[in-house]
């Protein structure tokens, strides 16, 4: 699944630079995650880095975008062209 940022986001700016796929960007009110670029850090790290640094724990899985580990790895390869 891709991750999402909830409206509990405090715009602290720590998640955006942690994303290896540049999937996180400032939205109109809070940061947002592009589900087409989010791989939950599969291919890069063992755990999603944005979740690790978020001080308010507002980055859950997006239940509306279920993806298997294999699908996330395919997306990683597509994004990185490797």
Automatic annotation (TrEMBL):
Pfam families: Fer4_7 (PF12838). Keywords: 4Fe-4S, Electron transport, Iron, Iron-sulfur, Metal-binding, Repeat, Transport. Residues 1-29, 31-64 form the 4Fe-4S ferredoxin-type domain. This is YfhL family 4Fe-4S dicluster ferredoxin. The keyword DNA repair does not apply. InterPro entries: 4Fe4S_Fe-S-bd, 4Fe4S_Fe_S_CS, PSI_iron-sulfur_center, YfhL-like. One of its GO terms (cellular component) is cytoplasm. Gene3D superfamilies: 3.30.70.20. The keyword NAD does not apply. One of its GO terms (molecular function) is 4 iron, 4 sulfur cluster binding. It comes from the Bacteria. It comes from Vreelandella salicampi.
């Amino acid at each position: 699944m891709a991750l999402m940022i909830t409206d509990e986001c405090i715009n602290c700016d720590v998640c955006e630079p942690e994303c290896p796929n540049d999937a996180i960007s400032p939205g109109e009110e809070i940061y947002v995650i592009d589900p087409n670029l989010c791989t939950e850090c599969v291919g890069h790290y063992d755990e999603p880095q944005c979740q690790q640094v978020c001080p308010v724990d507002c980055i859950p899985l997006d239940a509306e975008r279920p993806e298997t580990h294999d699908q996330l790895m395919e997306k990683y390869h597509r994004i990185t062209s490797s």
